[in-house]
Give the backbone structure.
Amino acid sequence: IGESMCQKLYNLNVFLVGCGAIGCEMLKNFALLGIASRQDKGMITVTDPDLIEKSNLNRQFLFRPHHIQKPKSCTAAMATLEINPELNIDAHLNKVYPATENIYSDKFYMKQNVVVTALDNVEARRYIDSRCVANQCPLLDSGTMGTKGH
């Protein structure tokens, strides 16, 4: 992809919402691409309020049996650092909805190069879409509904 594109990837600020099956895949890809891996630039901010359940283990490959009942976002961040220890990653345990606009404010969105959703909740996906539109921030929307992926 060339050195100039690699430099852009190293410096990206990415907000990932959701650390389930799609979120784990996204984090693995971010790690392999070196996204947000500059010492002084770039950050992957990831949030998911859920805890790991036994039923997650067959499709959320960053998690192991000893991770059951631990926070998905923190565990996924640590596992991603094992793939690429140079990543800058900040794990949160928050939902993204109007009550957390003090954390995920307009200022926060304006610092992001891209927002990535990996959710199983259509209402949350619509809310994040509206925040991205309001802040003119690119959105890569992905998610599931039941057994269907979008």
Summary: Helices lie at 3-10, 21-33, 72-83, 106-111, 122-134. The mean pLDDT is 94. The first strand starts at residue 13 and ends at 17.
